[in-house]
Amino acid sequence: MSRRNGSDRPGMKGPAGYLAGLSPLGPSQRQLRVGEEVRRVLAELFARTTFRDPDLADADVTVTEVRLSPDFKHATVFIARLGRSDIDALLPGLKRVAPWLRTQMSHKLRLRVAPELHFQPDTTLDYAMHMDSLLKSPDVKRDLDAQHQGDESEDEPEV
C-alpha cells in the first residue's frame, strides 16, 4: 500500500482521524504552514464580512486552529466565541456559508485545490478552565500541600 492514503500507518483509525490531519507522526511542516495560512485568511474573512445568513449576522467568530488532511483536500476549522458558549448554534450557519468561504479563500491563497471546510467547536479553553478550577479546589490544594510537606521532610538530613 502507498503511504499517501495513510492506511499503512498504525493509529490512523477511520476517516475522522484522516480528515483532522491526525497521524502518529504528527502533521507535516507543510500541513502546519498551510493550515496557519488558511486560519489567517478565514479570520480575516470573518472579521471583515457581514453574512446574509441570519444565524451569522451578528456573530463574532474566532478561528483558533485549522488542521489539514494529508492530501490538503479537507480542513477542520476549530472555532470559538470568546466569552460565550453558544458556538453549537452557529455550526449550521457556518456549514451553509462554507462553499462561499472556500471560494473566497481560493482567491486569496495559492493552492492547487482549496480545501473543503469542516467546522468544529474549539473546547480547549473550556477544558483549561475546568482543569484550573479542579487545581484550585480545596481537596487538591490539601493533597498538594501534604505532598509538598512530605517532600521537605525527606530532604532534611537525619541526625
From TrEMBL:
NCBIfam families: PRK00521.2-5, rbfA. It comes from Acetobacter indonesiensis. Residues 1-24, 138-159 are annotated as: Disordered. GO terms for molecular function: ribosomal small subunit binding. Residues 1-11, 138-151 have a biased composition (Basic and acidic residues). One of several proteins that assist in the late maturation steps of the functional core of the 30S ribosomal subunit. Associates with free 30S ribosomal subunits (but not with 30S subunits that are part of 70S ribosomes or polysomes). Required for efficient processing of 16S rRNA. May interact with the 5'-terminal helix region of 16S rRNA. The keyword Lyase does not apply. One of its GO terms (biological process) is maturation of SSU-rRNA. It is found in: Cytoplasm. HAMAP family: RbfA. The gene is rbfA. Monomer. Binds 30S ribosomal subunits, but not 50S ribosomal subunits or 70S ribosomes. Gene3D superfamilies: 3.30.300.20. This is Ribosome-binding factor A. Belongs to the RbfA family. One of its GO terms (cellular component) is cytosol.
